């Protein structure tokens, strides 16, 4: 394919040992990682891949990167991968940091803040009313002594 001259070719077929399956007590070769085929080729001269990026000039690298990006959208894939990672692997405290009140604790906190603000507004209005002598004189009084 690349016009490389070879001195020899040796092929191997590795067949794993026969083992017994402990759950069914049947015999066979189940471990596929132990089974492989390989070919060892002897070369007259060392082989170098013809279009290695390290051997290209800067302009050739840029052209190659543009071609790969136009065909396979590498930049978009990288952005999508980064978005996926930030979405999947962000810390749990990062959830709803944008102000969305969807967690129960945040909803309760917001309700309590609104209640406290309302109570402070009412207390300030009552204090203003009591400080005004005309209004304070016209208010009914309730006796606290119970007889």
Q: How is this structure best summarized?
A:
Helices cover 44% and strands 14% of the residues.
Describe this structure in words.
This is Mitochondrial ribosomal protein L23. Keywords: Ribonucleoprotein, Ribosomal protein. The chain has 147 residues and is an alpha+beta fold. The protein has 3 domains: 1-47, no CATH class; 51-93, no CATH class; 104-135. Helix content is 44%, strand content 14%. Strands 1-4 form a two-stranded antiparallel sheet. A hairpin with a 6-residue loop joins β2 (19-20) and β3 (27-28). The longest helix is centred in the last third of the chain and has 28 residues, at 104-131.
Look at the helices and sheets and give the structural class.
Answer: alpha+beta
The amount of helix comes to 40-55%
> How far from one another are the termini?
113 Å
Strand content: 5-15%
- The secondary-structure element order is EEEEHHHH
Q: What order do the strands of the largest sheet run in, or round the barrel if closed?
A: 1-4
Number of strands: 4
Number of helices: 4
Unreliable parts: none
User: Main β-sheet: number of strands, strand sense, barrel status?
Assistant: 2 strands, antiparallel
Rg from C-alpha positions? 40 Å
Task: List the SSEs and their pairings.
Layout: E1 6-14, E2 19-20, E3 27-28, E4 36-43, H1 58-72, H2 74-88, H3 104-131, H4 133-138
Antiparallel strand pairs: 1-4, 2-3
Core attributes:
elongated; two-stranded antiparallel sheet; 3 domains; alpha+beta; 4 helices; two-stranded antiparallel ribbon; 147 residues; 4 strands; Nucleotide-bd_a/b_plait_sf; 44% helix; ribosomal protein
């Amino acid at each position: 394919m690349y016009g490389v001259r070879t001195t020899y070719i040796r092929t191997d077929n590795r067949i794993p040992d026969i083992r017994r399956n402990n759950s069914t007590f049947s015999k066979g070769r189940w471990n596929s990682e132990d089974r492989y085929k390989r070919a060892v080729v002897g070369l007259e001269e060392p082989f170098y891949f013809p279009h290695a990026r390290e051997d290209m000039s800067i302009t050739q690298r840029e052209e190659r990167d543009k071609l790969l990006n136009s065909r396979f959208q590498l930049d978009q894939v990288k952005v999508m991968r980064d978005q996926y990672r930030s979405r999947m692997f962000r810390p749990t405290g990062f959830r709803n940091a944008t102000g969305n009140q969807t967690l129960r604790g945040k909803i309760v906190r917001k309700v309590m803040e609104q209640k406290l603000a309302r109570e402070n507004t009412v207390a300030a209005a009552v204090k203003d009313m009591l400080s005004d002598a005309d209004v304070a004189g016209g208010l009914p009084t309730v006796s606290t002594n119970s007889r």
